[in-house]
Amino acid sequence: MADPEFQPDPAVVKRSAPTVEDVARAAGVSTATVSRCLNMPAKVGEATRTRVLKVVAELGYSPNFGARALAAKRTRTIGAIVPTMENAIFARGLQAFQEELGLHGYTLLVASSSYSPEREADQIRTLVARGADALLLIGFDRAPAITEWLEARAVPHVIAWAYDADAKALSVGFDNREAMRALASEVFARGHRRVAVLTAPIAQNDRARERLAGVRAAAAEAGLDPDTLRVVETPYSFDNGAAQMDLLMGDTPRPTAVICGNDILAAGAIAAARAKGLRVPGDVSVTGFDDIEIARVLDPLLTTVHVPHRDMGRACARDLIDILENGTHPASTELRTEVMLRGSLGPPAD
Amino acid sequence: MADPEFQPDPAVVKRSAPTVEDVARAAGVSTATVSRCLNMPAKVGEATRTRVLKVVAELGYSPNFGARALAAKRTRTIGAIVPTMENAIFARGLQAFQEELGLHGYTLLVASSSYSPEREADQIRTLVARGADALLLIGFDRAPAITEWLEARAVPHVIAWAYDADAKALSVGFDNREAMRALASEVFARGHRRVAVLTAPIAQNDRARERLAGVRAAAAEAGLDPDTLRVVETPYSFDNGAAQMDLLMGDTPRPTAVICGNDILAAGAIAAARAKGLRVPGDVSVTGFDDIEIARVLDPLLTTVHVPHRDMGRACARDLIDILENGTHPASTELRTEVMLRGSLGPPAD
DNA sequence: TTGTATGCGTTATCAT
DNA sequence: ATGATAACGCATACAA
C-alpha cells in the first residue's frame, strides 16, 4: 500500500500536537519565554508577548496537561465528592461550585459515595491520585484515618453542608441542629404531641443526626420527653418516604405530624398519606428540609427549611481557590437557613 | 524558634510522596518492574509481584498523576459537558455515567454550558486541555468548527440525549421528534384543537426543535394546520413555565391543552393554572417530557414521556471506555421512550 | 527582559 | 521475567 519512494511533506506529516518548542522556534524565542507568556504574561515584554501569543494561536498550541502537571505540581483541577448527584440539593450545590471554579480557570472532578464512608474514602484517594489540587466534601462524618491522610498529604479541603466553628477542618454550611430545631418548634407550637420523625440513616451522617437532635431539642423545649418521638430511619428517596409513611399511618394512635429529614422523603410521605385517604394537614401534618423545587409544587405546599445551596457551592469554591492561590486559611462560614411555613403544617387533628 | 542544632530524623523529614524509585529500591527490583506490577500485573512473576505490591502498600505509594499522564498520554479521565446539572435529567444521567466510569477505573470531569454553544465550545477545549481522554456531549447542535476540531484531534466523544443513525458522530439517545409526536397524538386524539406548545428556545437546541417538530407532525396527522399551534419559547425553569402559562391562559380563546417541552415547565404551568383558578385537566390539560420525580408528585399526576436517563448515562460510559480500551467503533444506540398517560391530560373543556 | 539547563516521575522500548 | 534507559513536555531557578 505505502509507496517507499514517497516523501511526505513535512508540513503535513506533523501529526502530534505542537509543543512549547515548536512555538519557541516559530516565534524566535526560548521555551522559557513561551512558558512565561502563558503563565506570567506580566513578566514578559509587550512586543515579544504579542508575537508569541500570535504564534500560539496560529499553531493552535495548547500546553500538554501531563507535562504541565508534572512540572508545576498542580492541575488547576478541584474534586468534589457528594453522596449522589441525583439529589437536587447536591446537584444544585455542585452546579454553583463548578460555575465559580470555571470563573477562576479551575475544572471540576466529580465522584459520588452513595452515602458510603468506605466509598468516600476510596474516592478521596482516587481524586487526589487523579491530580485534584483540593477537595469539596460533604459533612464531617468520616473515618479518622482518611481525615489524617488528608492532613498528612496537606490536601486543602472544605466541608460543606455542615458548620462547626470548633472543627479543625474548614467548613461552609449551616447549623443542621438549630435549623431543624426552629422548624420542629413550629410543629410543637401548634400543639402536636404525637410526632414522628422520618430521617435518613443517622449512623454515618452527621447532618441527619444533627437534624434529629434538633427535633429532640424542640420536643424537650415543648415539655415533651424526646424519647416518646417515633423515629424511623430510611434512605433518602421518594419511594422510601412513601413506604415508611404508609407504615406510620398504620400506627395506633396515629402521629399527628411527621417531620421529614428532607423534601424528597416529605414528598413521598404526602403521596402515601393521600393514597391512604388522609388529608394533609387535616389528618396529618408533614414537614421537609431543603426547600427544593418540589416543595413549591406539592399539594399542599410544603413547610420546610430553606437552605442556600448555591451560596454554599460558591463559597466553597472561593475558599478553596483562595487557599490554593494565596495560601490563606479562610475561617469557616455559617450560612443562614430559614423556616418556610406553608400549607403542609397545620394544627393536630384531635 | 528553630533550634539550629536540631538534626531532623531522616525518617521523618521525608516530606514528599514516595516514587517508583523508592518502591523499586525497597523491593529490590527495577522501576520498570514496579510499573509493570501496577499496570500489567500478568506480565510479572508471581513472587516479585506480591513482594512489590506489599512494598507499595507499606509505603502508601501512589503513582504521580502528571508523570503518568505525560508518559502514558492518557489520564483515565473522561469529561462531560451538560447544559446544567440543576436539571434533574442531566444530574441523573451524569450520576449513572459517573458510576459506570468508576467501575472501570475512570474519573469524571464535569463542566456546564448553560445552554450556550460558545461556552460549550470553550468547555470542550478546556476539558481536553485538562487531559480528558474522551467526552460526553449533549445533542448535535454545535458549530461545525468545534466538531471539526474534535475530529482533527481525534477526541473520542459520544452525543447523548439524541439519536441519529446517519450522523458521523456516535450517539446514544432517543428520537426526540417521534417521542413527542407519540405524546402529542394522544392530546389530539382526545379532541384538543386549540393547543399551545411551551418549549425551551429552539435556536441552538436540537432536542427542543425536534420535540416541537413532533408536535407539528402530530397536529398534521390530526388534520390540523401546524401553523395554528401557539408556540412559546422560554428557558427551562419552573418560574418561566408559570409565567408563560399565565400569559397563555389570558388568551381568548384559551388553549385547551398545553404541551410542555419538559416536566419542569409543565410543573410551573400547572401551578400557574391553579393560581388562576383553572382546573387541570378540567379547564386545561398539561403534558410534560422526561418523567422525573416531580411528575409523580404533581396534582394531578403529569402525563409525560418517560426517558431512560440512567440507561443513557451508563451506555455512554460503556461506549467511551470501549473506544478507549479496545479502539472499537460502537454503533449508535437508540433507546426506547414511553408515553406515560396520567391525570393531567383529559378531554378539552368545550 | 530573556535564555540556559535541569528536574519532574512515569511508561515503554529494547536488551538480556 | 526482568533491567537499563530514553523519551515525555513543561516550569523554573539561575544566569546573563
Automatic annotation (TrEMBL), chains A, B:
It holds the Pfam family Peripla_BP_3. The keyword Nucleotidyltransferase does not apply. Keywords: DNA-binding, Transcription, Transcription regulation. GO terms for molecular function: DNA-binding transcription factor activity; transcription cis-regulatory region binding. Transmembrane segments: none annotated. InterPro entries: HTH_LacI (IPR000843), LacI/GalR-like_sensor (IPR046335), Lambda_DNA-bd_dom_sf (IPR010982), Peripla_BP_I (IPR028082). It comes from Palleronia pontilimi. The keyword Ribosomal protein does not apply. The lineage of its organism: Bacteria, Pseudomonadati, Pseudomonadota, Alphaproteobacteria, Rhodobacterales. This is LacI family DNA-binding transcriptional regulator. Residues 18-72 form the HTH lacI-type domain.
